[in-house]
């Protein structure tokens, strides 16, 4: 047998086992089983390698999380050292450990001012679930048990636990599970590019930001401020389609939350840890959260770990409640995950990653994308911040008109990307990029070249080129 057929047989063997035994997240398992999964066997820097030896440039940093790229030896060694020294211990029995303590203190130093008390969990969903529980607890402690409604935005993605999915505004996530739970209400969001198609007319981004903030105020007033516990939002929508807020939006939202005593929960699961060119999206947009959640980039995805950070108001009330807080996980503050996260933050600080993204590679990516695709017949808008970029594929640029079958064009483009060796995601017909923060200028050149090629191939398929 040739080496090639041995490789194919190994791939087919894995595909058959996967189809028989593995249920994939957010996938049609039967269809995927027939098609056969791609088996990723290794990764280095910004590149993935599959079981057939094909190399892919990972324009998504995994799932928006591998800030430092793959194969970082320092992170691997930090994890291995902790595995040898203290592979596990918990925080339930009046105990702690140096890794968890140091990580909490380090986060308090890096987070926006005032966010100084940290509770750990293992995923973004768990962090958001925990945040909602802490918000409820806070209002109970304040003697305001009626303040229980959690507001969030259409197109928001906050995860998949019962509460995090209820908080999410991507409606296809709900019917399979009879969600949302009671007490979760939605407000419209700041998708300016779609404003015209959604009946808002020819409005400027700034006016649109103000208008959408007003919708939040109207909702609070309709529900009664005495019933509204919190407003949750990502600084920038991630999985909802990389939607960036107009400059007027966050100042107005913060003013409204303050006015009606609604806690502001900022979900930085994607925007944290250098992604937008600052340590946190809250720095980029001048947001002062009462409570913040983070995950993904905290460990560059090398270990599952997430955190909830509390500002003084919630933190003091909860830490000084003089009773047991009845919440926490077996793996909250896992020493190995904390050791890797600590090393990750140390490297990010040492290499000044947020600054490099903000001042060098981020602007370079956006300039190159505009140069390569600004005039493209399919490209309605290129938007971004730091190393986040979205390329909106549209039917009619001048009219800002979407394709009639939303999602088809994005899928065509995404399939070309895989064939050409680029991981670029499609959300509806928006192509999104979120590469590792260690990406270099020559690697950005390669990414943009590939993106252009795949969008050209898509235009050719549609008869537009
Ligand atoms: N909040 C935000 C803003 C997220 O993006 C979560 C919470 C949940 O995190 P966990 O760790 O529970 O998955 C996320 C996760 C996608 C995609 O397809 C995005 C996420 C997860 C999976 C897929 O864009 N974001």
Question: Can you tell me about this structure?
Answer:
With about 475 residues, the chain is α/β, with parallel strands linked by helices. The chain folds into two domains: about 40-70 and about 350-460, Aspartate Aminotransferase, domain 1 (Alpha-Beta Complex), CATH 3.90.1150.10; about 75-350, 3-Layer(aba) Sandwich (Aspartate Aminotransferase, domain 2). The protein has helices spanning about 5-20, 30-35, 60-65, 75-85, 100-110, 125-140, 160-165, 205-225, 250-260, 280-285, 310-320, 335-350, 355-375, 410-420, 440-460, and strands spanning about 40-45, 45-50, 55-60, 115-120, 150-155, 185, 230-235, 265, 290-295, 305-310, 380-385, 390-395, 420-425, 425, 430-435. The strands form three sheets. Strands 4-10-9-8-7-5-6 form a seven-stranded mixed sheet, sandwiched between helices. Helix 4 (about 75-85) runs antiparallel to helix 12 (about 335-350) and helix 14 (about 410-420) packs across helix 15 (about 440-460). The two termini are about 45 Å apart. The mean pLDDT is about 95. 3-[O-phosphonopyridoxyl]--amino-benzoic acid binds near residues 123, 124, 128, 157 and 239.
């Amino acid at each position: 047998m040739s080496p090639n057929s041995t490789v194919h047989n190994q791939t087919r063997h894995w595909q058959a086992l996967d189809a028989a035994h593995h249920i994939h997240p957010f996938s049609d398992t039967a269809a995927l089983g027939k098609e056969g999964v791609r088996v990723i066997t290794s990764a280095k820097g910004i590149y993935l390698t599959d079981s057939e030896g094909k190399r892919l440039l990972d324009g998504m940093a995994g799932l928006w999380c591998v800030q430092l790229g793959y194969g970082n030896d320092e992170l691997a060694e930090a994890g291995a050292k902790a595995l040898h020294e203290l592979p596990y211990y918990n925080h339930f029995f009046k105990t702690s450990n140096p890794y968890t303590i140091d990580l909490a203190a380090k986060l308090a130093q890096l987070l926006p001012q005032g966010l100084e008390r940290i509770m750990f969990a293992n995923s973004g969903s768990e962090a958001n679930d925990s945040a909602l529980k802490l918000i409820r607890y806070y209002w109970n402690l304040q003697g305001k048990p009626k303040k229980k409604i959690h507001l969030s935005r259409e197109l928001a993605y906050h995860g998949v636990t019962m509460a995090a999915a209820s908080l999410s505004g991507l409606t296809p996530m709900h019917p399979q599970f009879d969600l949302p739970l009671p007490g979760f209400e939605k407000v419209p969001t700041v998708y300016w590019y779609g404003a015209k198609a959604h009946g808002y007319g020819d409005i400027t981004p700034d006016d649109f930001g103000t208008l959408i903030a007003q919708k939040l105020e109207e909702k609070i007033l309709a529900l009664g401020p005495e019933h509204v516990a919190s407003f949750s939002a990502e600084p920038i929508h991630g999985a909802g389609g990389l939607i960036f807020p107009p400059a007027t939006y966050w100042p107005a939202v913060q003013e409204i939350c303050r006015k009606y005593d609604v806690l502001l929960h900022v979900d930085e699961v994607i925007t944290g840890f250098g992604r937008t060119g600052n340590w946190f999206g809250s720095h980029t947009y001048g947001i002062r959260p009462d409570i913040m959640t983070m995950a993904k980039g905290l460990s560059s995805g090398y270990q599952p770990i997430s955190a909830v950070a509390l500002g003084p108001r919630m933190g003091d009330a909860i830490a000084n409640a003089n009773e047991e807080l009845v919440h926490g996980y077996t793996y909250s503050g896992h020493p190995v995950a904390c050791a890797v996260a600590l090393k990750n933050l140390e490297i990010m600080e040492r290499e000044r990653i947020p600054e490099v993204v903000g001042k060098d590679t981020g602007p370079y990516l956006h300039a190159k994308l505009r140069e390569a695709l600004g005039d493209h017949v399919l490209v309605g808008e290129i938007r971004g911040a730091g190393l986040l970029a979205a390329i909106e594929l549209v039917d009619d640029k001048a009219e800002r008109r979407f394709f009639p079958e939303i999602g088809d064009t994005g899928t065509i483009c995404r399939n070309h990307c895989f064939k050409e060796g680029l991981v670029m995601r499609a959300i509806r017909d928006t192509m999104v990029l979120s590469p590792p923060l260690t990406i270099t200028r020559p690697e950005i050149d390669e990414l943009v070249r590939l993106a252009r090629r795949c969008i050209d191939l898509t235009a050719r398929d549609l008869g537009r080129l």
